[in-house]
Amino acid sequence: FLSKNLVHKNMKHVYYLTTSSVFGHPGPHDAYYNYFLNLPFPKNKIFATYVWIDASGINLRSKDRILDKEPCDLEMVPKWSYDGSSTGHSTGQSDLKDSDITLLPVAVYRDPFRKSPHIIVLCETYSSEGLPTPTNHRVSSAITLSKICDQEPWFGIEQEYTMFDRDHWPLGWPKPRGYPDQDSKNSYCGVGEHVAGREIAECHARACIYSGMDYDGSNAEVMNGSWEFQVGPTLGIKAADDIWIGRYLLNRIAEHFDVIISFHPKPMGDGHAGIGCHHNFSTKKMRADQGVTEIKRICKILCDQHENIIKSYDLKDGEDNKKRLVGKFETSSYDSCRVGISDRSASIRIQKKVISEGKGYFEDRRPAGNCDPYMVCGLIAKTCI
Ligand code: ADP
Ligand code: MN
Ligand code: MN
Ligand code: MN
Ligand code: MN
């Protein structure tokens, strides 16, 4: 069993998935595959899947090793390494002679594919000199968050994504390469003919909850073929950890459905909705009576720093997000920042309920679907120092 500091509150309930619900539609090899999955398995062999962010800053990689017992704390999970010259992590082929990147385990989740006691290990990446690799933004984020831990920072993150068929056309769109009715507004929280990919979202929900993530919910999004899942509200760095593991599980599940997942903020161009990653935030002070004063103060700082901040809210120093933040499709403008009450065209939204109750949280709507939540959480937390 995982020890206290690894077990999250919702891990008390174990939802066992049947093999068939994880591995999608019945295929010709299912019986054969299941035969091997059901082989008697020795108790002293634990699969540990090490997961890390590669040099792209958005794609994840993983590899497996066998441990001889289930770790009961992080210290029991050994460090590992991988060949950075094969993942773009070192600067290229010239680095073949110095290609080892260290994997430092930072969080452990239950493996929903193989089930407990097998585990998924989220890792930070370090160069051979012991420095964080350029896409390891977790270190600095964790340092910032630790500086405000007495303020009890909670994050709730909404991750939107698009599902593509192997022909690179979104799920549910007319084939070949036809367009859905863009003005219908039928897909957001839609059912039946207006949505596609629900089975994947359902498998993903169950996998996330089983894993120990603070999974909070999901809904179909504005553009057909796109969905959202939410994490939180969660204390500190775990919200961003959970988003990365949620992204990993989504990609793994999609493999079984022959589907490709994209977090690109504007995958289908100008005429179609964008893909965001709203970050909701509160501190103890904001959640207490009269907290709205603190909420407004922090929102103002986040707006004042817009020009700087916006460069860290997507994968490409703002270039990707520029295509999404165009003032249409419930987005604000890329060039300016505005705090709005109950306003989904604002950069930062404060709910009406928060104003009437005088406390709660706010929503930064600017981060793009392909942002690094470590960077975003770090920047939001910095405003509280
Ligand atoms: P919407 O789509 O209306 O913006 P969602 O229901 O999709 O809202 O997402 C709300 C997010 O806010 C969730 O991730 C949830 O965990 C988070 N959240 C709720 N309460 C708080 C809070 N006090 N502090 C921070 N985040 C919160
Ligand atoms: Mn090898
Ligand atoms: Mn939402
Ligand atoms: Mn949404
Ligand atoms: Mn939102």
UniProtKB/TrEMBL annotation:
GO CC term, one of those recorded: cytoplasm
Keywords linked to the UniProt accession: ATP-binding, Cytoplasm, Ligase, Nucleotide-binding
The EC number(s) this enzyme carries: 6.3.1.2
InterPro entries: Gln_synt_N (IPR008147), Gln_synt_N_sf (IPR036651), Gln_synth/guanido_kin_cat_dom (IPR014746), Gln_synth_cat_dom (IPR008146), Glutamine_Synthetase (IPR050292)
Any Gene Ontology biological process: glutamine biosynthetic process
Annotated GS beta-grasp domain residues: 44-130
Keyword Iron-sulfur: no
Family stated for the protein in its record: Belongs to the glutamine synthetase family.
Entry protein name: glutamine synthetase
Organism name: Bombyx mandarina
Gene: LOC114247411
